[in-house]
Design a protein that fits this description.
This protein has about 625 residues and is an alpha+beta fold. Helices cover about 40% and strands about 15% of the residues.
Length: about 625
């Protein structure tokens, strides 16, 4: 595909249409897993990072004119990139050899060129073909863009890892050429080269230090420590070298020196030849090097009787299937609002279709044949199930569907929703229940998930818990309003919690008309209106005028700290839970183990406490 005449927006559109990034992420994860397995088996100290280029990054790279044009027909080769950070600089050549022997390299290794007068960050890059057995994971049609089916591996040392990040952002991605970047700051450029020189010296010095240490241990007859500091591999060093081998080395230091002279790459090659190694030990090192290089008959005879490789590959453990953990993420069972000016049957139809449209949208890619209008139906595919029962004459609509989560392996969502009329046409009941079923070993789990259609259902039909629920807090500043609130608090039919926020500063009567709702939100400890936008469809939010709040009796008594700037949660009477109380002092002195608003310029404590309060309501919602 020639992209020379395309705009960057055209290129981005082609990238989005042609490349399946979810499949690439799977392929990338498998590559990283396999490379980890290889490096772990030979004991190298390393860290690995991997990434799939983003849509924007690919688009920008293609747009710069260096790829896919008649003048430059070459292809992008680093759609998938892995960076392997090695702890010791002499491991760079070892890592390079391992990758060359494992994957099919295309072209030559790219390495920084050096001269005696400059210092540059050490970096080795190689490009490899994506193995066909890995590329099977990419089940989508192959792209036509100038992007090769290759991946890039970069090797760096620990000391240069941080430097490369700085260089990549500050120099490589800079809009200015390097000479302009340092213009009139040549002295700073010189300091930069001094830093690079120190990093290179540190890389070299670390290896030399351990080599000298290894020689010292050789001279002192510390054979375990000699092997450990010379080869510098991840190993089980709590198991000392066998006494028989130690005695041989003590008797014959020339024999020990032969092992000291063995190169690290020799040991790594021998380790990689083994089908299975449970752990790298001193005895295993001596056994392998003796077999490949030293060839001492006494050592061979000993390890013939005491072979550290005698541990065979463990048989795979038989696993019984385990049930998934089940967690409720949202549930609501409340009446729908009936207005006398509306026909109940019309309300039933409208409410049912609001829910069905939401379900149809969620399942449209799985079941594209879902009809636009409601009907009784049942559909099944592996991992997906949808059943709908529609009987409008009897005021009966129920829907149940389940689907696997493509972002969390082994996770299943199960959702039920219904609109019914228990009294055959006089009123309507709404039900919704979201459950998440996860493996017991799952680390990341959702804890709350309100269905997005709930806002539409609330605004067009109405949700009722003795009174209509909504996303705006109610301000009470009259005796009549307080009496109505008190009835709500003590009504045994109430299903949802009531959050009451008391005013900590009285509003001057003359100024009340300046505010849209007749009150100043700054006179309350938290913003009740914003709280109601979050939890107002599954709880009640009230704000009490300071004068009205004085009448409030909590747990049998009045409390000034509560009635002036306090917050209370009145749980449903049927729950048997006592009212939760936050005094004004508790709110002022609140500390949070996680405060994502800590650096907000204003009212960070208010935002944090409001967020915590919303979480308390959510947690109760999914547990009671």
């Amino acid at each position: 595909m020639d992209i020379s005449n395309m705009t960057i927006d055209d290129i981005r559109q082609q990238v989005e249409e042609q490349i399946d990034f979810d499949r690439l992420e799977e392929l990338n994860a498998q590559l990283e897993k396999d490379i980890r397995g290889i490096l772990d088996s030979c004991g190298l100290y390393y860290r690995i990072f991997s990434r799939v280029k983003t849509k924007n990054s690919i688009s920008k790279k293609l747009f710069n004119g260096k790829y896919g044009t008649r003048q430059n027909p070459k292809k992008v080769q680093d759609l998938i990139g892995l960076r392997i950070v090695l702890y010791y600089s002499d491991d760079l050549s070892i890592g390079r050899e391992i990758m060359e022997n494992t994957f099919l390299r295309t072209g030559t290794w790219s390495r920084n060129d050096f001269n005696a007068a400059e210092f540059r960050a050490t970096k080795i890059n190689g490009v490899f073909k994506l193995p066909s057995e890995h590329f099977k994971l990419y089940t989508s049609e192959l792209w036509q863009l100038p992007i090769d089916t290759t991946f890039e591996i970069q090797f760096r040392t620990v000391f240069f890892e941080g430097w490369h990040e700085i260089e990549h952002d500050m120099r490589y991605k800079s809009l200015l050429p390097d000479d302009k970047f340092w213009e009139n700051s040549e002295d700073l450029s010189r300091i930069l080269h001094c830093i690079l020189a120190n990093l290179e010296l540190s890389d070299w010095s670390l290896v030399q230090l351990f080599e000298h240490l290894s020689y010292n241990h050789y001279q002192n007859g510390n054979w375990d420590l000699m092997l450990k500091s010379h080869f510098r591999l991840r190993m089980e060093d709590k198991e000392p070298l066998a006494p028989a081998i130690t005695a041989l080395f003590d008797e014959n230091r020339r024999l020990a020196k032969q092992f000291f002279k063995c190169e690290k790459i020799t040991l790594v090659r021998e380790l990689l030849k083994q089908d299975y190694i449970s752990k790298i030990t001193f005895d295993l090192i001596v056994r392998l090097l003796n077999e490949s290089t030293v060839h001492d008959e006494r050592i061979s005879a000993y390890y013939k009787e005491h072979d550290p490789l005698a541990v065979k590959t463990p048989a795979p453990a038989r696993k019984a299937l385990s049930p998934l953990d089940s967690n409720t993420l949202f549930h609501l069972d409340i009446p729908l609002l009936h207005k006398p000016v509306r026909d109940v049957r019309t309300e039933f139809h409208n409410a049912s279709h609001i829910i069905y449209r939401w379900i149809r949208y969620k399942l449209s890619h799985v079941f594209p044949e879902l009809p636009a209008e409601l009907e009784t139906l049942s559909m099944h595919l592996p991992g997906y199930d949808f059943q709908c029962f529609w009987q409008p004459d009897d005021f009966l609509f129920t829907a149940e569907f389940s689907y696997i989560d493509d972002q969390m392996p082994g996770t299943l969502w199960h959702i039920t929703a219904s609109v019914t009329s228990p009294d055959h046409g006089s009123s309507l009941m709404f039900h919704h229940h979201t459950r998440l079923h996860t493996p017991t070993t799952a680390l990341h789990r959702e804890s709350f998930s309100k269905p997005s259609y709930l806002s539409e259902l609330s605004s067009k039909i109405g949700l009722v818990d003795l009174e209509r629920l909504g996303t705006q807090g109610r301000f009470v500043n009259t005796d009549e309003g307080f009496i109505a609130l008190r009835h709500l608090l003590h009504d045994p039919e109430r299903r949802l919690p009531v959050v009451v926020i008391t005013q900590h500063q009285a509003l001057e009567t003359d100024n009340s008309n300046e505010y849209r709702e007749g009150y100043d939100m700054n006179t309350f400890p938290i913003n009740g209106t914003r709280l109601a936008k979050v939890i107002g469809l599954y709880s009640h939010v009230y704000m009490l005028d300071q004068n009205i709040a004085r009448q409030l009796i909590v747990n049998g008594r009045k409390d000034n700290e509560v009635n002036h700037g306090g917050i209370l949660i009145f749980w449903p009477v049927s729950s048997g839970k006592e009212t939760t109380v936050y005094t004004s002092q508790m709110i002022r002195e609140a500390h949070f183990d996680y405060n994502r608003f800590a650096y907000h310029e204003q009212n960070f404590n208010e935002k944090a406490f409001r967020s915590k309060l919303a979480q308390i309501i959510k947690d109760d919602h999914v547990t009671h």
